[in-house]
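User: Teach me something about this protein's shape.
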Amino acid sequence: MDRPITGFHQDDEQHWVAELSCGHNQHTRHDPPLSEREWVLTQQGRSSRLGISLACPACDRAEIPEAFAPYKRTPSFTETSVPRALLANHTTKAGVWGRIHVERGELVYSIEGASTGAQRLVPGTQGVVVPEVEHRVEPRGDVSFYVEFWQKIS
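Assistant: First, the predicted structure itself:
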């Protein structure tokens, strides 16, 4: 899935790394003849790419970035107390990941546009919420679950 570039930094080998809105990083080397990215060599070139999207394979795999940690969680919801907003398509903000924990019962987790279809979540399985991707949940009978939110550690 494509993610906008929000910044750049250099790694230990002085290679340029794009910082993406999801929290993942991606090398953007100028390495002819394999990669022609002369723009990465200058501050002006890098600045011109801010906001441009790059494919993020780690988001495709729903991998929460390594530098992220939980910072808050919802109360436990049941089939009768789940907020309506969670039943309809909604998103998290840029850079905010989620992890759905089912404590009891079954919850269907649907991700808009996902080729995998809906995921059946039960105790012991978790759903990963990717930032800015529409998703919804559907309780199946007697269920209890909560959502844990993750962000970059300072």
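Now, about its shape. The mean pLDDT is 92. Residues 68-152 form a domain with the Jelly Rolls fold (CATH 2.60.120.10). If you'd like, I can walk through any region in more detail.
User: That's plenty for now, thanks!
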